[in-house]
Specification:
D-Maltodextrin-Binding Protein, domain 2; alpha/beta; five-stranded mixed sheet; 2 domains
Length: about 350
């Protein structure tokens, strides 16, 4: 084989497709998708930009959790991204966002639970998705409940954690749309079904709720907000699966297609800027992503939502990511430790000037 042939063989194959996925939480990704900016950005390069939700292949869709699909981006809850990295998956952390949200531990009015200290000896319901590769929902609820107990001067052993087995998987078998999320509205509205039914039946005394869905369930049940975690002044008490959210990409893509990655992130930054100037339109897009009424988006996230969708990698956010990683490790949701600062790839944002 001559030198020319060797060079041709070693030349990287042209990039034909980018994949993206996002969680049903407020993200700049969902704004950029809805506005058509990602498609437009790469159309001249003949690069197709596709949602995992457009694939009928369950293994492709499962990359939302394990991030094993080449040339892919993910923005959303931190637990799956941290879990994937802890298992040795080649990913890089491009940015993070902090969007405060409604988070609360609630009880029915006749339960005589009015404060965190009243949770002592009580049954706290936590759904466990037994068929999901990474049970982010259980991790989120458990951290919220344990934080509430700590605020009342209590530990895990001071209450009974009731595990509610949930066989439904987060990865639906059906396809939503070429640009759709993995969660149809029907699936979204059923996310906290196990906990809500257990509370109604009297099988548990209190549950953790979050986001717009949490606001709606609290209103439906006429529940009492026992601990308002979302309003706590210490940001460390507000860390959960979706606070902060993480933007990640496959490592090879970051190393070998830096210009493509930079342009992708620039699209998200522009989308975040657009949201800060177009609250009503952004709220409509986010509500559709979450499968919720716009009023619940407003109540769950507030006006600060629109100014906080821009990904960044400041020290405070990296510290929050490290805190979440350490918590997941201590409670068995991830098995191996790693250095968040080494995982981060600030060079992409640095090139953009952010």
């Amino acid at each position: 084989m001559n030198d020319s042939a060797v060079r041709h063989k070693n030349r990287a194959q042209p990039l034909e497709r980018l994949w993206y996925t996002r969680c049903p939480v407020p993200t700049a990704t969902s704004i950029a998708i809805e506005l058509g900016w990602l498609d437009h950005e790469f159309a001249s390069d003949q690069i197709v930009v596709s949602s995992l939700g457009s694939s009928q292949d369950r293994d492709v869709r499962a990359s939302h959790f394990d991030h094993r699909l080449p040339n892919s981006f993910r923005e959303g809850g931190n637990a799956p991204a941290l879990w994937s990295r802890s298992r040795g998956q080649d990913t890089r952390l491009l940015g993070a966002t902090w969007v405060d949200q409604y988070q609360a531990v609630v009880a029915l009015p006749d339960a005589e639970i009015e404060s965190a200290s009243d949770l002592c000896g009580r049954r706290l319901g936590v759904a466990a998705r037994i068929n999901d590769p990474m049970d982010f929902w259980q991790a989120k609820a458990l951290r919220g409940l344990l934080t509430a107990l700590a605020l009342g001067g209590l530990g895990k052993d001071d209450a009974e954690i009731v595990v509610l087995r949930e066989p439904a998987t987060s990865i639906a078998a059906d396809t939503t749309s070429p640009i759709g999320t993995l969660w149809a509205p029907e699936r979204q509205q059923g996310q906290a079904r196990a906990e809500a039914f257990a509370l109604i039946r009297g099988e548990v005394d209190a549950i953790y709720l979050s986001g717009g869905l949490g606001c709606a369930i609290e209103a439906l049940l006429g529940a009492r907000r026992v601990v308002d975690l979302g309003a706590h002044p210490d940001s460390a008490m507000r860390i959960t699966n979706s606070t902060p959210t993480l933007l990640t990409a496959t490592g090879a893509l970051v190393r070998e297609q830096r210009d493509v990655v930079r342009r992708y992130v620039e699209c998200l930054i522009r989308a975040a800027g657009w949201a800060s100037d177009h609250h009503e339109e952004a709220r409509r897009i986010i509500a559709a992503e979450l499968g919720e009424a716009e009023v619940w988006v407003e109540r769950a996230y507030g006006e600060a939502l629109y100014a906080n969708l821009r990904p960044t990698l400041n020290d405070e956010l990296l510290a929050a990511v490290t805190s979440q990683k350490s918590w997941l490790l201590a409670h068995g949701f991830i098995r191996a430790d790693f250095d968040v600062s080494e995982w981060a790839a600030p060079e992409v944002l640095n090139e953009i000037g952010q």
